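Re: the 426-residue chain
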Amino acid sequence: MDAGGAQAHRRAAVLAIGDELLAGAHADLNSPRISRELATVGWPVGRVVVVGDNEDQIVQALEALCRDHDVVLVTGGLGPTLDDVTRSAVARAARSPLLEHAAAAQQISAWFAARGREMPGSNLRQALFPKGAEVLPNALGTAPGFTMETTGETAGARLFVLPGPPREMAGMLLGEVLPRLAQCAGDGSGQAAARRDFFMVGLSESAFADAAGDWMERSARPRMGVTAKTSILSVRLTLEPGAGDHGLLEERAVAFQERFERWIFSEQTPDLARVVGEHLLAENTSLALAESCTGGLVAGALTGVPGISRVFREGLVTYSNRSKCERLGVDRELIERHGAVSPEVAAAMAEGCARSSGADIALAVTGIAGPGGGTPDKPVGLIWYGLHRAGETSTAQRRFPARGRQQVREFATQTALALIWRALRA
């Protein structure tokens, strides 16, 4: 990689390796993380390729990617078993023999010794590297990574080969890879794209697209991209290097804030629970929860926020009708008359939770997560919420697609957090 070249744009690619990725047994969590991180240091990823643990296919993919890109990041296949063939494939593609690295072998042995375990002989395969490679230490596992300039069919590209487990990959990516690539970008050979991020809740992706209009055109400057995950929209405005006046980005960001202000909950994080928790702490507002169909997921999300014990009073999982009556004081006749999934019962749950906890805000959730239990009047995915604050109780209904029990519960959880967030803003 010629760090001093005069190219205006750098080209990066990712090669994810593993039979389990192709089979769908595990999701490829590494490639999206790599793409996000590389963009921050001026190396946008132009291509992602997934192949299995087949040495010939890995060699072919490496040769093709290295011909068309300046940097190629490879993840996976660095384990100790015979089906982990990434090292040998890289050696073949780079026309470089595999050699044992003595220091790496000692580090692997020390990793096992520190845990009181005897190192299996197969782990010594993890100390084999192509000749000329620089070993990248792995503080979180036994598989070191490596980096090297390529020759032969892959000449001119810089390879970074990282382990597959996401935690180990992320540690090496942040600690070893990004500093090297940032240094190259900082020498004038590349520039990081300017960007602004916005995270929203309560707006569907299609409704967002209608409201955004021509801002989402491929030719728009800055470019706008959006992804949706469990009720959260993540929007990024990006002005590519060399695209001109960065004032364009700020001008669009201001207009975006004005147009979507009622849905934007953060510009720093997509973690709605964190935003809600920090808001509760900042205002010293106490909260209690009464959950039925979500089974404690709302409480679980909020209790992941550091310091939340100062304001989080309690979370009750009143799953059965009996529990709703005995723990929250819901009138049994109310349930018999309207059903447990109803605005009347949701309101009574919230009021009972407020009485028992003394919290400033009490939120209740009751619904039908499925896959069974639905009726024409109350289908799977129907959720009712009750929220009690300052002596007043409100209810809200949501109908989520019946795409599986877990997804309904996740959508219901995020919506509960959104209702608390809106109550805090009121």
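The longest strand covers residues 194-201.
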